[in-house]
Amino acid sequence: CVCLSVYLTRGAMTEFQEKLRQQHEESMHRELEALLATANTAEAQISRKDFDGFKEIFHRFLQVKGPAVDWAKINRPPEDSIQPYEKIKTKGLPENIAASLNKLAVVKLNGGLGTSMGCKGPKSLISVRNENTFLDLTVQQIEHLNKTFNADVPLVLMNSFNTDEDTKKILQKYKHHRVNIHTFNQSRYPRINKESLLPIAKNMGMNGENGEAWYPPGHGDIYASFANCGLLDKLLAEGKEYIFVSNIDNLGATVDLFILHHLMSQPADRRCEFIMEVTDKTRADVKGGTLIQYENHLRLLEIAQVPKAHVDEFKSVTKFKIFNTNNLWISLPAIKRLQEQNAMELEIIVNPKTLDGGLNVIQLETAVGAAIKSFNNALGVNVPRSRFLPVKTSSDLLLVMSNLYSLDAGSLTMSKKREFPSTPHVKLGSSFTKVQEFLSRFESIPDMLELDHLTVSGDVTFGKNVSLKGTVIIIANHGDRIDIPAGAMLENKIVSGNLRILDH
């Protein structure tokens, strides 16, 4: 009797939950229609496509209960599913590599703003080296490829509504460069109230408070947006077969001819449709997504999908030895096929945010690499660390501006003068967070060729021609200031206290 009543209660609960889900979905659809009614015809047409994608992700969000992965089913990927880069390199290159290049397009993810580094506008327009921005370096790299091999590799920028206008203005300056540049916009999705699960937007506008009501839904949106805007079909018609996708702030993500050749030389019936470049994890990368074997497929596991009890295990360098660099090589015909079949179910990342006024909202996002499970003969390639050189903070910026790297045709390579291949560990304190403030604290970028570790905290400035070696720790306590004098050489030193150098 007790068993029966529990069973009935469970049944009633499931029915109740199902009704609740339907209610949430109906309310959401009503609200979205009301929002569309506030837009002009052209805008409504684009937004309707965006909202179709949003309805689908919202529907799946309501269905899923608990963590997206069953921890017990996680296995290490089989040996042959992650190839060492060296093995791919031993194949060498064919004489007509230009024929392969002509089947490639480069896609850079350009949706992010420079706000975390204290800059207005798109992050790709921040100067990173000799007055060159991320975008300048990207254009130089591809132009160099096209000239060297007499090829036609186009550059495609995936912008967001945050970066589109500013990026398009700047593209004029590349008119006479030998690279065709295309742009498309990723979707604009409505942020939803954490309690009511309804959009917080009042209308389709982007101004004032309503500007906070929208978000670009992560880079997993690339597949739908790319297809919706017509660029996928355009590139296929031009004979392109693969895209190389990477973050625009990863200065190591250049076109690798060996990986390209590996893709192009596979037999037609075993064509590799997806390569994810991974690299060995260090202590600095514990949060990076990793490749796992799950239900007979390679799958990307992100930290947001890990049950709380297993987060430490996920971060361990011993169990999960590699992480995703987000440098991806993807087959265009395969994207077309999967989009037409609506067969790409990307895991949902629920990203909670608190707006300035204190309102709790959620953003439903997806990651581009999560699609790996849907493609045939997918492969991980374990690449050298040099292919992962992201600039997320001013500490990263200091590294790429220094003499540790040399710049050649838009590509940064580790200086031959550095004895060991690892990059130094740099931690700059909050006084260096904003790019402008960071630049004002260095009269010139220090010599860092022999540096292992640098920690700087508090009000610290560097004079001209400073040289840093080994482990250097500089700490100015609250109210103190340290000016490192011009020409100083610090080797394995801890500097603390107060040191002022004033012009006489």
UniProtKB/TrEMBL annotation:
Enzymatic reactions: alpha-D-glucose 1-phosphate + UTP + H(+) = UDP-alpha-D-glucose + diphosphate
Regions annotated as coiled coil: none
One Gene Ontology MF term: UTP:glucose-1-phosphate uridylyltransferase activity
Residues reported in the UniProt entry to bind substrate: H219
Residues the record lists as binding UTP: K123, Q186, G218, D249, K392
Signal peptide limits: none
UniProt keywords, alphabetically: Nucleotidyltransferase, Transferase
InterPro entries: Nucleotide-diphossugar_trans, UDPGP_fam, UDPGP_trans
Family: Belongs to the UDPGP type 1 family.
Function in brief: UTP--glucose-1-phosphate uridylyltransferase catalyzing the conversion of glucose-1-phosphate into UDP-glucose, a crucial precursor for the production of glycogen.
Assembly information from the UniProt record: Homooctamer.
Protein name: UTP--glucose-1-phosphate uridylyltransferase
Organism name: Sander lucioperca (Pike-perch)
Gene of this entry: LOC116052162
